[in-house]
């Protein structure tokens, strides 16, 4: 089971569950998270969703081993991963209920850019984030070329996307990517305490407010994701990206 699902009252917790791979997103995890989110959206008994990770990572991003093997063997279903990822981004962008993310450990690549779709982000004081795209010869993804400048401001987003440097929990809060930083042992309890406050409100009004918050950004998110997908199709397996994937497989 790549996504653990548990319900407490009206709160559903989804935990990414590939701890042996630092919760890296392979085809199955991408698809399973999409299904879990869509089922949560349709479940009338769920008012708020909390997303976190198992083990010592929130998510290490795309499973580079799988990506490298697909590039090396083009007969593999590259299109399936692309389609599943596009569907997951659409699901996140259209998610109709409050979505809280609790970053329990390192978040790399998609493990950081997915935070752009959260309504509230809580982060362990010991966790770190990184967008390593320039280090592996890849473009941004998950509409982060739009969401990060909107959330963080142009220069903070430029540093995050261009530098491939680590961002601490304190820095993430300072630039506006994270709402609250918690001691590791208090992270989930704090996230759930705030989720309970939201879940106590009528689900209809929660959905209305969420829809109004998202409405100004839907077209821009879709357009940014399309541009990024085109750039990924052009760069994947070529130049610096090919070198990075080859080096990863050798390790």
From TrEMBL:
Localization (cell):
Peroxisome
Enumerate the InterPro entries for this protein. ClpP/crotonase-like_dom_sf, ECH/Chromodomain_protein, Enoyl-CoA_hydra/iso
Query: What's in the keyword line of the UniProt record?
Result: Isomerase, Membrane, Peroxisome, Transmembrane, Transmembrane helix
* Name listed for the protein in its UniProt record: Enoyl-CoA hydratase/isomerase family protein
Could you list the residue ranges that cross the membrane? 99-122
Drop me one GO molecular function for this one. Answer: delta(3)-delta(2)-enoyl-CoA isomerase activity
């Amino acid at each position: 089971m790549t996504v653990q699902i548990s319900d407490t009252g009206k709160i559903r917790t989804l935990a990414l569950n590939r701890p042996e791979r630092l919760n890296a997103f392979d085809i199955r995890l991408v698809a399973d998270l999409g299904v879990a989110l869509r089922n949560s959206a349709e479940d009338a008994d769920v008012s708020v969703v909390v997303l976190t990770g198992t083990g010592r990572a929130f998510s290490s991003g795309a499973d580079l081993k799988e990506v490298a093997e697909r590039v090396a063997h083009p007969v593999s279903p590259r299109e399936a991963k692309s389609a599943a990822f596009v569907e997951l981004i659409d699901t996140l962008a259209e998610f109709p209920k409050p979505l809280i993310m609790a970053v329990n450990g390192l978040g790399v690549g998609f493990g950081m850019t997915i935070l752009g779709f959260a309504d509230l982000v809580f982060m362990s004081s010991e966790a770190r984030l990184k967008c390593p795209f320039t280090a592996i010869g890849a473009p941004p993804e998950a509409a982060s070329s739009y969401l990060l400048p909107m959330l963080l401001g142009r220069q903070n987003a430029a540093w995050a996307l261009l530098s491939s440097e680590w961002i601490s929990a304190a820095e993430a809060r300072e630039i506006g990517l994270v709402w609250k930083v918690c001691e590791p042992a208090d992270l989930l309890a704090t996230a759930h305490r705030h989720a309970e406050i939201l879940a106590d409100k009528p689900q209809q009004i929660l959905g209305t407010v969420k829809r109004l918050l998202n409405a100004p950004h839907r077209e821009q998110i879709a357009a940014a994701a399309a541009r990024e997908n085109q750039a990924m199709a052009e760069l994947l397996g070529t130049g610096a990206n090919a070198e990075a994937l080859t080096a990863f497989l050798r390790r």
